[in-house]
Design goal:
Blueprint (H helix, E strand, L loop, with lengths): L2 H41 L5 H28 L6 H33 L1 H7 L2 H26 L16 H31 L5 H41 L5 H16 L1 H32 L22
């Protein structure tokens, strides 16, 4: 079997894997994200920082879902680089990093709210959250319009990098767009869990809620790392292969990228399950801690060390 035939076999196998993974993701993801959008827009009346982030995350996830059928087609067939290719490329490379950055913002927002509840009143507001999201959307839209034109100058087919010319802009994207956010999410999650452990009470119901919050934050961190780390490690490997001009390793790395991208794109569906869980726990969690804080304030406990009163549980979404 020659190299050309081997490439077609690998391409067919990857396309089959994408069909197996993406069809359930689409079938579940689109209706679940639609319902999640309705819940956060219509059911949760009060505008909070979390609500702003969640709505933007739902938009990013849904937009990414729309690109999946085209990615399956582009992976199987040699589609030329045209306007359709640029449109799907722009949507994909805007919304995946947007999803990662919003998850990072949620982790930072949760950290500030729980660690520094007094300063949080100054640092946090729905308007500030919305402004940050608008800035990120504009920045990523500009980036996603520039990157394909730089990346595809020497390419013939859509979503298929064939040249071994290293892209230092891609390296910048990998580090700034994922590994730095990953470090931030890890730091914020660990600090929040430590803080919640210190706030354990003798009340069994409150203790159960805090333990549940710590569990969700831990799952958030694990799912975030499991979904996105393989893809970005694969992208780093491709950069190393390009720098070393190791053409014999390129097909294997490309296959690794496509397989790990399937895992990363599952995040669009996994998020939706956790929207509902977070919204469900919000009512119970927020109803308990205002009473808890009121009692502790009367005993003279420092307000700075008290847990936040506003929708803590909602911020413990599954940031997959």
């Amino acid at each position: 079997m020659n190299n050309s035939t081997e490439n077609y076999v690998v391409r067919d196998d990857v396309a089959l894997l994408q069909l197996i993974v993406y069809i359930p993701v689409l079938v579940l993801g689109i209706p679940l994200n639609t319902i999640a959008f309705w819940v956060f827009c219509c059911k949760l009346k009060k505008w909070t920082e979390t609500k702003v982030y969640m709505i933007n995350l739902i938009i990013a996830d849904t937009s990414l879902l729309v690109t999946l059928p085209f990615i399956i087609y582009f992976s199987k067939y040699n589609h030329p680089i045209d306007q359709l290719c640029f449109a799907i490329d722009n949507i994909y490379f805007t919304n995946m990093p947007m999803s990662i950055l919003i998850i990072t913002l949620i982790a930072i927002d949760r950290y500030i709210a729980i660690k520094f509840p007094l300063k949080a009143k100054i640092l946090r507001s729905p308007l500030k959250s919305a402004s940050i999201c608008v800035f990120l959307w504009i920045t990523l839209i500009i980036y996603s319009n520039v990157l394909p034109r730089l990346r595809n100058r020497w390419e013939r087919y859509c979503f298929r990098k064939q040249s071994l010319d290293p892209s230092y802009l891609s390296l910048f994207y990998i580090i700034l767009g994922y590994f730095i956010p990953l470090g931030i999410v890890i730091f914020c999650s660990v600090q929040v869990i430590r803080c919640l452990k210190k706030k354990m009470t003798t009340n069994p119901h409150e203790t159960k809620l805090i333990q549940k919050a710590m569990y969700i934050i831990s799952v958030n961190l694990c799912v975030f790392a499991v979904c996105f780390s393989p893809l970005h490690i694969a992208l780093l490997l491709r950069f190393a292969v390009e720098v070393a001009q190791a053409s014999s390793l390129a097909p294997g790395v490309t296959t690794f990228i496509r397989i790990s991208a399937c895992l990363a794109n599952c995040n669009c569906c996994l998020d939706a399950f956790c929207y509902y869980f977070a919204a469900k726990e919000f009512q119970e969690f927020s109803s308990v801690f205002p009473r808890c804080i009121s009692v502790r304030s009367k005993t003279g406990q420092s307000q700075e060390s008290q847990p936040p009163t506003d929708h803590v549980m909602t911020r413990t979404r599954c940031s997959a």
